[in-house]
Specification:
- The protein is an alpha/beta fold.
- It has a domain of 202 residues: 3-Layer(aba) Sandwich (Rossmann fold).
- Helices cover 48% and strands 17% of the residues.
- Strands 3-2-1-4-5-7-6 form a seven-stranded mixed sheet, sandwiched between helices.
- It is globular.
- 38% of the residues are buried.
- Bound molecules: S-adenosylmethionine.
- S-adenosylmethionine (SAM) binds next to helix 1.
Length: 297
């Protein structure tokens, strides 16, 4: 499609994430209780999501931005929240609704999923105790507008929880990730890896970086990378906690082709080393988890 319009790109985005949600729902139900054991969650996300869920009290109003197949919105409701989830992907939202309907009597809170474009959404003022956004801000071009909406929609003292990429990958980090992926068994065979190195020669580092950034994955992938969402949030909110993901472990977690009994200890060891190097500033990561509080007036 030459020069697709905004609406056409939005449609493509919705279809893409609908396919991702369908594929995932074929192997695991869209429920945090089953998702938490998946390898990338066990290594990278479990403690952050459990920390978010521990903030929920029964009857709280929560909103998830970019809820996909709905597992995090549902997890918030399982803690007793009145939980709303918004996403641009109608097929992903349909999967979320279907699954919620199948377990509704066992959920202590309530769930409402809706299709909405976060670049243009109008949120009700002073309504939510918690707003969560996982992996969505970097797909948006109107991030500043959305952050303003979020600020107005939270009650005083309300929590904005974000887990997302921030900025672009440092070439040195991409090269270390690339080198690890080259020597360890991954989804790509050693023959293909060697073929790629010979073919791209001096251009190989740029190719590795581009593939790690997954620029061609979605029509909006990286649209929000130019926006410094962290600074935008810090301008309006009190940053309560801010943690960094490790720099290279995430890429390897997605790619490593070893049975769990070998992969999990290897990835956990790498996570600790990687994290220590990020804290000392030796490696630069792009994944951030942020707890931002709306100041109580
Ligand atoms: C990386 S996925 C993350 C999904 C989910 N938060 C998770 O962690 O599994 C990004 C999600 O953002 C949604 N998204 C992208 N652009 C959007 C927009 N403009 N408005 C609403 N949702 C959008 C996609 O449909 C997709 O479900």
């Amino acid at each position: 499609m030459d020069n697709p319009t905004y609406q056409q790109k939005l449609d493509q985005e919705g279809e893409l994430w609908g396919r991702v949600a369908e594929e995932s729902a074929r192997s695991v139900p869209p429920d945090w209780r089953s998702h938490r054991v998946l390898r990338h969650n066990a290594i990278m996300h479990t403690r952050h999501i459990d920390a978010l869920l521990s903030q929920v009290r029964p009857g709280m109003h929560t909103l998830e931005l970019g809820c996909g197949a709905g597992w995090l919105t549902l997890a918030l409701a399982q803690q007793g929240a009145i939980a709303r989830g918004l996403d641009i992907s109608a097929p992903a939202v349909a999967i979320a609704e279907q699954y919620y309907a199948s377990i509704k009597p066992a959920v202590s809170g309530r769930v409402l999923y809706e299709v909405a474009d976060l670049n243009a959404v109008e949120l009700p003022a002073n309504t939510y105790d918690i707003i969560a956004a996982k992996g969505v801000l970097h797909h948006l071009y109107a991030v500043d507008r959305l952050i303003e909406q979020v600020h107005a929609a939270l009650k005083p003292g309300g929590l904005f929880w974000v887990s997302d990429t921030h900025g672009s990958e440092a070439t040195s980090t991409a090269l270390i990730a690339g080198a690890l992926m080259l020597v360890l068994p991954t989804q790509t065979s050693y023959r293909q890896k060697l073929g790629g190195l010979l073919r791209f020669r001096a251009g190989a580092p740029a190719r590795i970086k581009a593939s790690i950034q997954a620029d061609n994955l979605s029509p909006f992938e990286g649209a929000g990378r130019e926006h410094d969402w962290l600074a935008m949030i810090a301008e309006r909110f009190e940053i309560e906690r801010h943690s960094e993901h490790p720099a290279v472990t995430g890429y390897l977690t997605a790619q490593l082709r070893l049975p769990d009994r070998m992969a999990l200890p290897l990835l956990r060891g790498l996570y600790r080393l990687d994290h220590a190097l990020v804290r000392r500033g030796v490696l630069k990561n792009t994944g951030k988890v942020l707890y931002a509080r709306k100041r109580a007036v």
